[in-house]
Design goal:
Layout (H helix, E strand, L loop, with lengths): L1 E6 L7 E2 L3 E8 L15 H11 L19 E6 L8 E6 L5 E4 L18 E4 H11 L12 H8 L20 H12 L3 H25 L3 H5 L2 H24 L6 H38 L8 H7 L6 H58 L4 H55 L1 H19 L5 E7 L4 E7 L5 H21 L6 E4 L9 H18 L2 E7 H9 L13 E2 L19
Parallel strand pairs: 3-11, 3-12, 10-11
Antiparallel strand pairs: 1-2, 1-4, 4-5, 5-6, 6-7, 8-9
Helix pairs in contact: 4-5, 4-13, 5-11, 7-11, 8-10, 12-13, 12-14, 13-14, 14-15
Length: about 600
């Protein structure tokens, strides 16, 4: 149970709570309205602060984050399972992600060298987990059921439009999310019911994918299963080829040196071939020159002179012989020179031929060594290419899965929806005792408000998209009766959750619940809340305006034993909960 709400600001009016019915009364001036831009008495603000201290997410619009309130530290004392003294939790808007507890409820300091019984700080997430574990009995993973949502059913907030309908705590809450949490409070198979939430998430995903496919740009990114199947096949073949290359790759020692040597051999072989062309050309010219180098025939000269009547003297003949001998000598020397040149060229050609053969063997060996492996850098590059192709393949597979999901999801979702509906329907039949208890309790509370002749019940059935829980009271659909439906429904789930250890022992209602309600039902609801709280060992906290309370008193309800201090006032500057006026967003 909640015991005390306070703050370190001396102007703040500390609120104390006891067992049973607790009425926080506000005197409402005739001129005030719900749309007043200043906080009025602070009735709704009290509930906002309780939520803040029980782990609600702090946003820029949160009451405690208001500039005028941010430096204030708020405190809530409450009973805690296993503790002999009330637990105090403190939180401030200056450090909204941290709460301070007066006692260690998580065993955070168990491993400390020196035990310290003083305050301990927890993150808001740790505090929320502790609330789920100790106040709601949630253990382990519980997707779809949240302590914060459960608390919102037991302490509805007008700022979140929590009084719009019984089975939602805020206007945009999805039916599957609300149903999972209500199933837990009612003792149904909430894990089975949570399948609706998962199914809704799949439907939302399919809707988004369908929009993407219809988009001309994103459609090419998603693609069709037929196209993607072919692309995946090619990509898999490429990846497998690269994997084989990497697996069979051998790192050759001194790879770069061998590569340079192979390049040198290749260049030398080309150089030898060029030199051979030149020398071969020169050899052919020398061989032709040797053929042309012969002694000149001069035997025809003397007969020719004789016929001309010229007789050659002995002296002329000797001179001629000398010239002839000289010519023979020149021819002989030229031939010997050409033959020596030919021999030298031939030797060079033969030498290069032998060198080419040796270099060819070296080149073959080097190329063979290089072909068998490569450098470490080449292996790294190959592995990088493999990684790139594997990533591309994974992307294609993700696209393929998305395309498959889109193309088959409609049938799968329909099939799953039918199966889930049947499973939940079967579970409801097996848990008829729990559903009957809830139906009878709701009906009992409604008839206490409207008489035995009024038909009232909970309609609980397995739907196609969610577990349907519909509280009904035969009425003319007026606002007052709608609010009393919420009252009976909240009282039902709070009592059942408390009875079976699935919820805390308090229920909180804002004065908005009683706006527009017939005076007879206001009196009956307050009397019923007080009676049920006493019988069940619970606490029912109500913020209420004096005008509603006075009409209830006129109908026979005695509020005095249940009124708690302070008595708030929205007319005077210091009469509200905070003790001063400040600008705020929403209602006070």
């Amino acid at each position: 149970m909640l015991r005390r709400l306070s703050a370190d600001d001396a102007r703040f009016k500390t609120v104390s709570f006891t067992d049973g019915l607790n009425l926080l009364v506000a005197d409402k001036r005739p001129a005030s309205s719900d749309t007043d831009s200043r906080n009025s008495a602070g009735k709704s603000s009290m509930i906002e602060l309780i939520h803040f201290l029980l782990g609600s997410r702090a946003t820029a619009k949160s009451l405690a984050m208001n500039k005028a309130l941010r430096s204030t530290t708020y405190s809530l004392e409450l009973d805690w399972p296993g503790l002999h003294h009330p637990l105090e939790v403190r939180r401030t808007g200056q450090r909204p992600k941290v709460v301070t507890l007066s006692q260690d409820i998580l065993g955070v300091s168990d491993g400390a060298l020196f035990q310290d019984d003083g305050p301990i700080e927890l993150s808001v997430e740790q505090w929320t987990s502790a609330i789920e574990r100790d106040l709601f009995g949630l253990r382990g993973d519980h997707p779809g059921v949240s302590g914060r949502v459960l608390l919102s059913f037991l302490a509805r907030r007008a700022s979140s439009h929590g009084f719009n309908e019984p089975t939602r705590t805020f206007s945009r809450q999805s039916a599957p999310e609300a149903a999972s949490n209500l199933a837990y409070l009612l003792g149904l198979d909430w894990q089975l019911v949570d399948g609706y939430r998962e199914l809704a998430a799949r439907k939302a995903t399919r809707t988004q994918l369908q929009k993407a496919v219809n988009d001309p740009v994103w459609g090419r990114i998603v693609g069709s299963t037929a196209d993607l199947r072919g692309q995946i096949t090619l990509a898999e073949a490429q990846v497998e080829r690269l994997r084989r290359q990497v697996a069979g790759f051998q790192v050759v020692p001194e790879y770069e040196r061998l590569k340079d040597r192979a390049d040198q051999v290749s260049r030398r072989i080309k150089q030898l071939a060029q030199e051979d062309v030149i020398d071969q050309h020169n050899l052919e010219e020398l061989q032709a020159a040797v053929t042309e180098t012969t002694d000149t025939e001069v035997g025809y000269l003397e007969p020719a002179y004789r016929e001309l009547g010229i007789v050659l003297t002995d002296q002329v003949r000797r001179r001629f012989e000398d010239v002839k001998s000289f010519h023979h000598s020149v021819v002989r020397n030229r031939r010997r020179f050409l033959e020596e040149e030919i021999s030298e060229l031939t030797e060079r050609l033969n030498s290069r031929r032998a060198e080419r053969a040796r270099l060819g063997e070296d080149q073959a060996r080097l190329l063979r060594d290089l072909a068998e492996g490569g450098a470490l850098g080449a292996l790294t590059a190959l592995q990088t290419a493999l990684g790139r192709e594997e990533a591309a393949l994974a992307a294609l597979r993700h696209r393929f899965e998305a395309a498959q999901t889109l193309e088959a999801s409609a049938r799968q979702i329909t099939t799953k929806s039918v199966e889930l509906q049947q499973a939940v329907d079967t579970d409801l039949q097996e848990r008829q005792q729990q559903t009957n208890e809830a139906i009878l309790l709701f009906s009992q509370y409604a008839q206490r408000l409207y008489g035995q002749g009024r038909e009232a019940y909970l309609a609980i059935e397995a739907g196609r998209s969610s577990l349907s829980i519909t509280p009904r009271i035969d009425s003319d659909d007026s606002r007052g009766i709608s609010n009393m439906v919420i009252f009976c429904f909240d009282l039902t789930i709070a009592v059942l959750a408390h009875r079976y250890g699935r919820g805390p022992d308090f229920l909180i209602h804002d004065s908005h619940l009683y706006d527009g309600v017939d005076e007879r039902q206001v009196a009956a609801a307050l009397a019923l809340g007080a009676e049920v709280a006493a019988e069940e060992g619970m606490q029912y906290i109500v913020t209420i305006n004096t005008d509603n309370l006075s009409v209830a008193a006129q109908r026979g309800f005695d509020p005095e034993p249940h009124i708690r201090s302070p008595r708030l006032d929205d007319e005077h500057e210091t009469g509200g909960l905070f003790g001063f006026r400040f600008k705020t967003v929403g209602k006070g």
